[in-house]
Specification:
The protein is α+β, with helices and mostly antiparallel strands and 177 residues long. The protein contains three helices and eight strands; from the N terminus they run E-H-E-E-E-H-E-H-E-E-E.
Length: 177
């Protein structure tokens, strides 16, 4: 990487409209070829945005939220991670890896949760696995159109403590992220 990455954590509610436009454009570029298989659900609002800039330009981002979910009969607080996106011309330079590391530290220290949780497609699972995330399911439950709905996806967690991930089905107890 020729230039250094500057990271900024910002509350999602405080993202200025001009920055939100840049984030939206980056999402469209990064997820343009994603196959959602007709999935039309609303996505959960994030609590935090993590923005990565090179030479002042936002080139990578991700979202974080904090939520208590249900796994089997256990209530589990998690840091939900989503919207990991890097501009195509900046990919394969370690930027998302750096952002993910900073986000993991933030979830562990600032959010004080025992696990990070993300959902991803089969094509990105190897990337997250290399960063220490572990697959725990291929289905979870979430809200779609006001009703509980199964979502077929890869579900991965990153443990921040010695606490074991509970057994059982995963209910996000709200919208997916």
């Amino acid at each position: 990487m020729a230039a250094s990455l500057q990271m900024e954590f910002i509350r999602s509610s405080q993202v200025p409209p001009a920055i939100q436009e840049i984030i939206d454009r980056l999402d469209k570029l990064a997820f343009a070829e994603e196959d959602t298989e007709g999935y039309q659900n609303e996505w959960a609002a994030s609590d935090w945005m993590v923005l990565g800039r090179v030479n002042g330009e936002i080139v990578t981002q991700l979202c974080i939220l904090k939520r208590e979910i249900r796994v089997g009969t256990a209530q589990v607080p998690v840091g939900g991670l989503g919207g990991v996106a890097t501009h195509p011309s900046w990919q394969r330079r370690g930027l998302s890896k750096a952002l993910m590391g900073a986000a993991a530290q933030f979830m562990q220290v600032e959010l004080n949760v025992p696990f990070g949780l993300l959902v991803c497609g089969d094509e990105t699972q190897p990337f997250y696995t290399r960063l220490g995330w572990k697959m725990v399911a291929t289905k979870l439950w979430c809200i779609e159109k006001g009703m509980l709905h199964p979502l077929q996806t890869t579900v991965m967690v990153l443990p921040f403590s010695r606490q074991e991930w509970p057994e059982g089905e995963i209910d996000l107890c709200g919208l997916p992220w």
